[in-house]
Amino acid sequence: MMNANIITRPEAPTDADADAVREVVRLAFGQDDEAKLVDDLRAGGYSRVARVAEVEGRVVGHVMFSHLPIITSSGVVASLSLAPLAVRPEYQRRGVGSELMRRGLEACRAAGHRIVVVLGHPEYYPRFGFRAELAVPLKSPFAGPSWMALELAPGALTGIEGRVEYPPPFGVWT
Q1: 135-161 burial by CB neighbour count: b if 16+ within 10 A, else e?
Q2: The whole model's pTM is what?
Q3: Are 79 and 164 contacting, i.e. CB atoms less than 8 angstroms apart?
Q4: CB distance 149 to 115 below 8 Å
């Protein structure tokens, strides 16, 4: 059920936002690895779209879309990696993640991005248009129903076959 008090906005380049995001991500995943990933993607200049969700002025969620080139035989195709999507545990299942996804994908589309990939729950991400079959031609360290892609522009993945190249901060997972 959607919480009408959710406000999403771009992540601000401030210590306050960075600290709040770090806490949200750490609590959502129960460890520091994903929070370090967000910090490292931001510090390395790989973040392309990052949004926070606030409830009553408190940051309770975060989503990041980062640079993820697809290396093909005819060149490089720009795409984004959605990772991570995080919501404080006490705000989960209240529409925060869904609102972040909708607004984040809108921001990606508005910025001219055409392709987003995710390694995530196959029950959750398809509701936003992600499909495992779209990701099959994209070689990565991942395979199966959790590896999905989304075309922000119709046909953006048509004829695209290649290898995704995760930036160095993803090294622990790839």
Answers
A1: beebebebeeeebbbbbbeeebbeebe
A2: 0.93
A3: yes
A4: yes
Domains, the chain, with CATH or none = 6-172 (3.40.630.30)
Residue 168, number of CB atoms within 10 A of its CB? 10
Q: What is the pLDDT of residue 87?
A: 97
The alpha-helical segments, DSSP class H, found in the chain are: 15-29, 33-43, 96-110, 132-135
What's the pLDDT tens digit per position in 72-108?
999 999 999 999 999 999 999 999 999 999 999 999 9
How are strands ordered across the β-sheet holding 70-72? 75-77, 70-72, 162-164, 138-139
First to last CA, the chain: 35
Given a contact cutoff of 8 angstroms between Cβ atoms, the answer to whether 9 and 103 are in contact is no
Q: Across the beta sheet with 115-119, what order do the strands follow?
A: 6-10, 47-55, 58-67, 80-87, 115-119, 147-151
Q: Which of 168, 169, 137 is nearest to 70 (CA)?
A: 137
- CA–centroid distance for 150 within its chain: 11
Question: Which residues are within 8 A (CB) of 122 and not within 5 positions of it... i.e. 6 or more apart?
Answer: 132, 145, 146, 148
Task: Specify the 3-state DSSP secondary structure of 50.
Answer: strand
Helix residue ranges per DSSP H, 93-162: 96-110, 132-135
Residues 6+ apart with CB under 8 A from 72: 160, 161, 162
